[in-house]
């Protein structure tokens, strides 16, 4: 990642806090862009802002604690006011590919239960069609080989994710298959086809869940609402 991309992530991440209001319960997404939101949020909390958040990954939980962001969970609140999250790809209909960091199940739960979802990203994440970024699919460890074969039958090349020479294990103790589809013309249809396969826990396709996208790039920061998309 270039310093420039890092800067765009910081700009988008910090911009998102403008939509946070006192008393809100927040969904705290995952990834390096969200890091900047959490850092900025920590500063506002120090100045008296009163919010609490549900983290969508153990990594986010660690950052939130570091920045003194009060945390809660679904035993305490069932509806969140606002979720702020990153993405790996965003299409013109605001469908997303997520899960590059391996937290897609918790991210989807947090976003699904939020009244409003804001996605923050650098400009490069905006694409004409999803699919260049291999689609992360969370699967049970048990029998992952047969699940991978069934996904391959749908036209993908699934690769079991590894980190540091070991199989990557998600926060939910599952594996991730990074599935090269190259082109995903109908994200909703593909999501449903994958969900029908035994062994698939969740897909990284987030369809019809995003209300606003904040994109930062060479031309500055752009806030795009679902109603006036590009
Ligand atoms: O879906 C995610 C993690 O599972 C992240 O939101 C996505 O990978 C974007 O990350 P980053 O902000 O680091 O580019």
Tell me what you see in this structure.
The protein has 230 residues and is α/β, with parallel strands linked by helices. It folds into 2 domains: 3-125 and 207-228, Rossmann fold; 135-204, Alpha-Beta Plaits (2-Layer Sandwich), CATH 3.30.70.260. It has helices at 3-15, 32-46, 58-66, 104-112, 144-153, 187-195, and strands at 25-28, 52-55, 82-85, 89-90, 96-97, 117-122, 135-139, 157-160, 162-163, 166-167, 175-180, 200-203, 205-206, 212-217, 220-225. Strands 2-1-3-6-14-15 form a 6-stranded mixed beta sheet, with helices on both faces. Strands 8-11-7-12 form a 4-stranded antiparallel beta sheet, covered by helices on one side. The two termini are 26 Å apart. The model has no long low-confidence stretch (mean pLDDT 97). Ribulose-5-phosphate is lined by residues 9, 29-33, 85-88, 98-104, 107.
Write the topology of this structure.
Blueprint: H1 3-15, E1 25-28, H2 32-46, E2 52-55, H3 58-66, E3 82-85, E4 89-90, E5 96-97, H4 104-112, E6 117-122, E7 135-139, H5 144-153, E8 157-160, E9 162-163, E10 166-167, E11 175-180, H6 187-195, E12 200-203, E13 205-206, E14 212-217, E15 220-225
Parallel strand pairs: 1-2, 1-3, 3-6, 6-14
Antiparallel strand pairs: 4-5, 5-13, 7-11, 7-12, 8-11, 9-10, 14-15
Helix pairs in contact: 1-2
The site of ribulose-5-phosphate (5RP) has 18 residues, from helix 2 and helix 4.
Short description:
This protein is of the alpha/beta class. The protein has helices at 3-15, 32-46, 58-66, 104-112, 144-153, 187-195; strands at 25-28, 52-55, 82-85, 89-90, 96-97, 117-122, 135-139, 157-160, 162-163, 166-167, 175-180, 200-203, 205-206, 212-217, 220-225.
């Amino acid at each position: 990642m270039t310093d420039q991309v890092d800067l765009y992530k910081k700009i988008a991440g910090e911009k998102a806090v403008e939509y946070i209001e006192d008393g809100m319960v927040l969904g705290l997404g995952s990834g390096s862009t969200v890091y900047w939101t959490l850092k900025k949020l920590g500063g506002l909390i120090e100045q008296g802002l009163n919010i609490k958040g549900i983290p969508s990954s153990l990594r986010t939980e660690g950052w939130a604690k570091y920045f003194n962001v009060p945390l809660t969970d679904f035993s305490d609140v069932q509806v969140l006011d606002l979720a702020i999250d990153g993405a790996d790809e965003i299409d013109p209909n605001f469908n997303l590919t997520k899960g590059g960091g391996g937290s897609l199940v918790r991210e989807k739960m947090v976003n699904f239960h939020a009244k409003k979802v804001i996605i923050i990203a650098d400009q490069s994440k905006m694409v004409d069609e999803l699919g260049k970024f291999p689609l992360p699919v969370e699967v049970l460890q048990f029998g992952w080989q047969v699940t991978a074969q069934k996904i391959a039958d749908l036209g993908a090349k699934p690769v079991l994710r590894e980190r540091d020479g070991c199989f990557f294990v998600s926060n939910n103790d599952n594996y991730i298959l990074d599935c090269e589809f190259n082109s995903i013309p109908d994200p909703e249809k593909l999501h449903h086809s994958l969900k029908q396969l035994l062994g698939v826990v969740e897909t990284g396709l987030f369809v019809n869940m995003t209300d606003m996208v904040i994109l930062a790039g060479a031309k500055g920061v752009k806030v795009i609402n679902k109603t006036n998309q590009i």
